[in-house]
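Hey, can you fold this one?
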Amino acid sequence: FLYMHVASLSGNLASPAAASSLMWAVGPWPCLGVAVASLIIGGVVFVFVPECKGPKKSNGEGEGLNIKKSLREGLKMLQSRTLIVLFLVALTTSPVSLSTLAFLVQYASKRFGIPISFTGFVQTGFGVVNMFFALGIIPYVSKRAIESERLKNWLGISGERDRDLRLLRWSFGFLVVGA
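Sure. Predicted structure:
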């Protein structure tokens, strides 16, 4: 998961600067075309990933039963409260992140008089800070929370699972306060 997060952050680090450079050179419409083409290419690539292909078709008998069985198995997963909370967390953090970046562009443009074509460079700074936290601060705090007896007692941590839960709660607390 950390590798996927770092890959996502790397994209968030490079793409705003690239978009700003492209927008400054040729205007906003080619940027929109590049974005749409990238989405289409990304969707087409999923067709070739073996895990994304559907089950192999048999002779056509019982295909409706397979779909019902798969649907039933998928719905059984939703009986777990922790899995539902995980889905809700994943679904709520993405809109917060996207709206933060959209607000950052508008705020930097209005407040500091930066043209919108240059606000991608501000977003790159935002990506650098996120990369610093993901690769530096969070692993350091996580490691210290397990190794330091004083910190374990102060946070009330009894093990790795408890540590992860406490860090998640603190992270969401900071997210709510920062919002």
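The mean pLDDT is 78. Let me know if you want another pass with a different chain boundary.
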